[in-house]
Amino acid sequence: MMRVRAATPEDATAVAGVHVRSWQAGYRGLLPDEYLDALRPEDRAAHYRFDATDHDRPVTMLATEAETIVGFAAAGASADHDPDQRIGELFALYVDPSRWGCGIGRALLEDARNRLSQRGYQEARLWVLRGNSRAERFYRIDGWTADGAQREDRVWDLRVEEVGYCRALP
Questions:
Q1: How far apart are CA 112 and CA 89, in angstroms?
Q2: Can you give the C-alpha Rg of the chain in angstroms?
Q3: Are 58 and 52 in contact (CB under 8 A)?
Q4: Is residue 55 pLDDT above 80, yes or no?
Q5: DSSP letter at 129?
Q6: Which of 37, 44, 147, 151 has the greatest number of C-beta atoms within 10 Å?
């Protein structure tokens, strides 16, 4: 049975494992193979901060099955907008590739939307790696719309191009 809970600092290594495996499977063909093959969870784990308590700091929620972390989502205040606009952002949503298609991503996405709404955000945005049609399809099914925004970003020491999506929150 899948359960959603808040991440703790002790979860960093397991979250990094899900994150790396998701990138290696999901971004194959979109990012250089050599880069993806060189990703290591132990290099990523120290970058996660799961102990923040500030209301506008991102919160990371985990999906677990039998205490094993199988996915995570991070959401909070959008850094791209004026704080007075109260726009939230889904910063990350990754599921272990062995569990794709099992509803874990949908559950995490619903939880993230609900948390943003409870924090008073009326709109949310997210960024998708250009060419990631699987992610774009997933978000469109959930009511997200490409908003025409594009950006270049640096993620894990790699320059990437991203496409913006947004949706109203209840």
A1: 9
A2: 15
A3: yes
A4: no
A5: E
A6: 44
Which tokens hold the place of 2?
């899948």
CB of 163 closer than 8 Å to CB of 128: yes
- Phi and psi at residue 22, to the nearest 5°: -65, -45
Q: Let me know if 67 is exposed, middle or buried by CB neighbors in 10 A (0-12, 13-18, 19+).
A: exposed
The answer to whether the CB of 7 falls within 8 A of the CB of 72 is yes
Residue pair 26/155 in contact by the 8 Å Cβ criterion: no
How many C-beta neighbours within 10 Å does residue 109 have?
20
Task: Note the pLDDT tens digit of each residue in 94-138.
Answer: 999 999 999 999 999 999 999 999 999 999 999 999 999 999 999
**DSSP β-bridge partners for residue 76:** 89
Sign of the alpha-carbon torsion through 53, 17, 150, 108: negative
For the beta carbon of residue 69, count every other beta carbon within 10 angstroms. 19
What is the C-alpha separation between 84 and 21, in angstroms, rounded? 37
**pLDDT beyond 70 at 53:** no
Q: Which amino acid would we find at residue 125?
A: R
State pTM to two decimals.
0.93
What are 97's strand-pairing partners? none
Token code pair at residue 17? 């494992």
